[in-house]
Design a protein that fits this description.
This protein is mainly alpha-helical. The protein has helices at 7-34, 40-71, 76-102.
């Protein structure tokens, strides 16, 4: 480990940061619920945004995958990108099956 790294500060700061983030998220969600922000239109827009974001992420993984295999050859990073791509595809299949069952 690096000599200047303070493990105690990290171990205390990580949960504290998470607690602050969750507290802010809760109050924003509560205010949005009161103002009726989370209607059907909101849900549809969020679904489309997630779908587009997922497609862009998969495209970026494939591009990075190709660059890594060309530049470095089949090393650790190639197999990490392969695992990431497989996880993305499997999660997409599972999510599709769940969504198909609900509709």
């Amino acid at each position: 480990m690096h000599e200047d790294f303070d493990l105690l500060a990290f171990m205390l700061g990580l949960p504290a940061g998470l607690a602050v983030a969750l507290t802010v998220w809760y109050f924003v969600w509560k205010k949005g619920k009161k103002e009726r922000r989370y209607d059907e239109r909101y849900k549809r827009v969020q679904e489309q945004a997630k779908s587009l974001s997922w497609a862009v992420t998969v495209f970026a993984i494939i591009i990075a995958w190709a660059i890594v295999i060309i530049v470095e050859g089949p090393g650790l990073s190639f197999f990490l990108f392969t695992a990431l791509y497989i996880i993305a595809m499997v999660s997409y299949g599972v999510a599709s099956a769940i969504a198909d069952k609900k509709n």
